[in-house]
């Protein structure tokens, strides 16, 4: 009996069961949180839509249509090691030409009447783009090592008429930009996209409004992702 009593006294008395009650989330609060997330996702989608659409149009559908100039397919990327030199004799990395649409002429240093006329048309075409003109830079690629005449350089260095003038070995230039059959490099305008890809070729003496229409199409198609300005480019 004593053992029985001792055992009873030593055993722990059972504790009462505890039922903790936790409040359930308010269904209205959960619904509001979900609605907020969906609204945020919708806003993000609306913001991204123009960019996605322009990428899709430019890189998938591509602005073929009835172009005045000749669209180059496949496009030709500017060689990363293309040796470029400015008029001061400084080396210029080919990658520095990326980030902006380029309207390119390829004329010799001995710039005659046809060359001067093309440089004038180049300037007028850019001005015709109006508020979009800051998305396009004018570039003159000079085959060989000779510098253009000081008079011409002075004319294209005036404010509002600035042209990026770069010298490049003739053979290396011809390996990237190519004229149409029976034509010379100097017989065309070359349009290069912001990724450094030559993608359109047009006559050196074009119908300006028709070539402008091509440029307008390209600029509209890239409006969602292309911003004005290129590091080191003229303004």
Automatic annotation (TrEMBL):
InterPro entries from the UniProt entry: Thioredoxin-like_sf
UniProt keyword Membrane, yes or no: yes
Membrane-traversing stretches: 41-61
Domain of life: Bacteria
Keywords: Membrane, Transmembrane, Transmembrane helix
Name by which UniProt lists this protein: Cytochrome oxidase Cu insertion factor, SCO1/SenC/PrrC family
Organism: Pelomonas caseinilytica
